[in-house]
Design brief:
Elements lengths: L1 E8 L5 H12 L4 E6 L4 E7 L5 E7 L4 H4 L1 H11 L3 E8 L4 H7 L4 E6 L5 E7 L1 H6 L5 E5 L16 E8 L2 H8 L11 E5 L5 E9 L2 E4 L1
Parallel strand pairs: 1-4, 5-8, 9-10
Antiparallel strand pairs: 1-5, 2-3, 3-4, 6-7, 7-8, 9-11, 11-12
C-alpha cells in the first residue's frame, strides 16, 4: 500500500501564509495546483522526493464546498484552527476498495494553471469525516508524468507519519498488516485527545523536520 500525499487544511485567510511557512520548512516553494470545481476547494502542492507530495488546501466561497464531502472535511478542519486533514493512499485498481466499502468511487478533477485537466477517482471521505484516523483512497487517471508527485522540487521526503488512532482498525480498513501499513514510510501510533494524523516527519537537507 503506497502513500500518495498528505493534506493540510487551512482557512482562506491563512492559506498563503501556511503555504509559505511549510515551503520554507521543507526548503522549496509550492506550486499552484488549481481549483477543484466538484469540491469547492483549491490547493497548492509541493512534489517531494520519493514519489509523494504535500497538499495545502482551502475552501472556496462556492456552494460545492458545502455539498461535497471533501469540501465539508476541509471546512471543518479549517474551522478547528487548521492542520493535517489526513493521509491519502493511491491504488492502481479501485475495484477491490469499492467492493470492500460497498459503493462506487467519486470522480475528481482540477484544471492546473497550465491548462492540464487532472483526473482521478477517490473514495473514503465519508469514513474520514466520521473517523479522522482513517485515510482515503485515490486512483489517478492520468499518466505518471502528469501527477502532482512528478518532478520533485526538493530532495526532502516523507519519512514517517504519527497517527492517533487504533492500529487494528486502520489495518482492517486498508487490508494491510497493522505493524507495517505503508511500504515506504514509517507509521508511529501516538496518544492524542482526538484521532487523526497528528504530525508528519520529513527528511530534509537540514535534518529531520516535523510539522
Amino acid at each position: 500500500m503506497r502513500l500518495d500525499h498528505v493534506s493540510y487544511a487551512v482557512a482562506r485567510e491563512g492559506f498563503v501564509s501556511t503555504v509559505q511557512r511549510i515551503g520554507s520548512a521543507l526548503g522549496a516553494g509550492f506550486v499552484d495546483g488549481g481549483v477543484h470545481p466538484r469540491f469547492g476547494t483549491r490547493n497548492f502542492v509541493l512534489p517531494l522526493a520519493g514519489g509523494t507530495y504535500v497538499e495545502v488546501v482551502t475552501t472556496l466561497d462556492h456552494p460545492a464546498a458545502d455539498r461535497a464531502p471533501f469540501g465539508q472535511a476541509v471546512a471543518r478542519r479549517a474551522a478547528e484552527g487548521g492542520g493535517w486533514l489526513g493521509w491519502v493512499v493511491s491504488v492502481e485498481d479501485m475495484a477491490p476498495v469499492e467492493a470492500r466499502l460497498g459503493r462506487t468511487a467519486a470522480p475528481g478533477h482540477r484544471v492546473r494553471p497550465d491548462g492540464f485537466d487532472l483526473h482521478w477517482k477517490q473514495i473514503g471521505l465519508l469514513e474520514l469525516m466520521e473517523d479522522p484516523q482513517l485515510p482515503y483512497f485515490l486512483q489517478w487517471l492520468v499518466d505518471p508524468g502528469q501527477r502532482p508527485s512528478a518532478d520533485p522540487r526538493t530532495s526532502s521526503s516523507i519519512k514517517g507519519l504519527s497517527i492517533a488512532g487504533d492500529a487494528a482498525a486502520i489495518a482492517e480498513f486498508l487490508g494491510e498488516p497493522a505493524d507495517h501499513p505503508l511500504d515506504q514510510v514509517d507509521v508511529t501510533w501516538v496518544e492524542d485527545e482526538e484521532p487523526g494524523l497528528v504530525a508528519v516527519e520529513f527528511a530534509t537537507e537540514r535534518g529531520l523536520v516535523t510539522i
